[in-house]
Structure prediction request, 239 residues.
Amino acid sequence: MTTASHAAPEVINVLPPMAPVVDPRAVPVSRVDSDLPAVDPRRLVADALRERFAHPPAWTPELRREPRMTERAPAQAAVLVPIVQRAEPTVLLTERATRMSTHSGQIAFPGGRVDPEDANVAAAALREAWEEVGLSAGFIEVLGQLPTYTTVTAFVVTPVVALVEPGFRLRPNPGEVADVFEVPLAFLMDPAHHRRHQMEEGPNARHWFSMPYQDGPHERYVWGATAGMLRNLYRFLSA
Prediction:
């Protein structure tokens, strides 16, 4: 298996739950990985993505688990990583409503808890995308899955990567989603935009990535679990 340079060790913390990050923007940047190569744009088009998931390389996910911040039992969840096949491919993301009980106001993929009625994690991701933003499965081609990512809130999340055909019409659920937007895939797959942060020192240290994107007047502050899963997608596509 390949291990890329500057790979952060898997974060496993069995200490008592930690305090949440109140404002991640206030935590200094410890490093920007501008020395790592961006994914070749030819690997970001539909046929290349299909080929990569059909014949995956040997690779090592960089991030698998965040420190615990809760005593709740782990729960299975799934998110859709929707790559919209525009002239310049984009990733469709949401801003979670502030009334949500976990990760409120954060940038996220459409997704949520896997229900007993779901046939598998892909079915859960598709159902959640429909319920959250009205993205119809008729526009979606599932490519495959990335390794699970366990969040600070004890959700064991399976990222389901999919191609999305343009032409869809979204109907965001205002109870769950404050906004829906797209970020160029090439931007997210360029480590020059991957910023590392660290809070505290020693065994209680918490590390995460952020990938802020300026979308006109809006700063889309992608960080935490969403940025971690995108970083794993980068490692997968660049392997």
